[in-house]
Amino acid sequence: MDYIRDLEQAMSKDRVTTNETIIEEHSFDESHHTPSRPTVVVFPEHSEEVRKIVQIASQYEVPVIPYGAGSSLEGQVIPCDGGITVDFSLMNKILEVREQDLLVKVEPGVTRLQLNKELKKYGLFFTVDPGADATLGGMAATNASGTTSVKYGIMRDQVRDLEVVLADGSIIHTGNLAEKSSSGFHLNSFFVGSEGTLGLFTELTLKVHGIPEHKVAARAVFPSIEQAVSAVVSILHAGIPIARCELVDESSVKHVNQYSDTNYMEAPTLFLEFHGNQSGLQEDVEFTKELVKEQGCQEIIFETDSKAAHQLWESRHNLAYAFIHSYPGKKMILTDVSLPISELTGAILYAQEEMKDMDMVGAILGHVGDGNFHTILMIDKENKEEVEKADLYNEKLVKYALARGGTCTGEHGVGIGKKKYQRLEFGLAYDLMVKMKQTLDPKCILNPGKIVDRY
């Protein structure tokens, strides 16, 4: 193909490949969505090469799909129409640590754990923790969040500036190094969460934080999910600066024990973590004990030993793998909705009741401190009835959340799976999003088929 020849001329030929194995590796992500193969995979080393790639794609009107670690959960990196997958794994340099400004400048292929290993030398850390060792470019593209967002905010809150290659090959910056600005449109927010549909990120300037002086982790066990969520509301209303607040249901704890060789009580449980100085943390811990006791907490265990605390959070992060390991041959579907805190208890109870009524295998978990929760569903992808039932269940949760002022996704993003709910969620504003996309990408070459319909 002519555009592959042009790509080979624009870059080193060994970084442009149609190798069957590499093509197959870039046809899917961690989601349950149907794989689709790119035509060619390219591995740029700097932003000028990304510019050339996009210019060639524009000339031939070929789709361009950015690819980080492939850990997305709604099919964001699946090439629906073939085309060029741009793998950013070679653009993985930490360019600058501005210690005094609490900023870091990185290339998009830098991963979360890679960055935190480097920042530790400075007594700093990057807060957004989605569980997977995702790339920072991919995390910005999907507006990732995770376990620590209740205290530190989501990915959008950490982005100070982006270097973006637009559909015509031009390169822009969306922000600056200042702590705040009242100048112009807020372009950082415009591009964060755009999933590669508006431009390709080639450099990110991110906010970082000082490593807390002390951390305390805890498990609080309750007779029911309703009491566990009520305890979360009490903690938030009391103003306790909790850093992590995760809910796992009885089924989740059972699978954690089997997979991680733990011996936690198998009941609805909150995994908690507090960050701060020693004296302040002690006050927070004592206050939390009182609050959860009022909500019927059966036991609360504080893990002051770093090894035990690490095991607690490792078991939470490995929960998805615990389910996959327990149901060989089945595929995991992970739903994701977010609601106002006042609506959270009803939504989780609804999700629990529907899962039981529909006779589905799964569990409920989530970052309940910020109103975001998930359900794990294990299904046989070859069983049409199970697939349809899972889709119906997901749709019920989304419609429940939207009817109560929530959103169809709190952190997984839109991709392929949640695109069908965008008009329902945004109404006439959906048409505005389409116009914005058409203005920046008139040929619809940037990750087509994601977030908005093709045109």
Automatic annotation (TrEMBL):
Pfam families: FAD-oxidase_C, FAD_binding_4. Residues 33-211 form the FAD-binding PCMH-type domain. Its cofactor is FAD. InterPro entries: FAD-bd_oxidored_4_C, FAD-bd_PCMH, FAD-bd_PCMH-like_sf, FAD-bd_PCMH_sub2, FAD-linked_Oxase-like_C, Oxid_FAD_bind_N, Vanillyl_alc_oxidase_C-sub2. Its EC number is 1.1.2.4. It is an enzyme of class 1 (oxidoreductase). Keywords: FAD, Flavoprotein, Oxidoreductase, Transit peptide. Transmembrane segments: none annotated. Belongs to the FAD-binding oxidoreductase/transferase type 4 family. This is D-lactate dehydrogenase (cytochrome). The lineage of its organism: Bacteria, Bacillati, Bacillota, Bacilli, Bacillales.
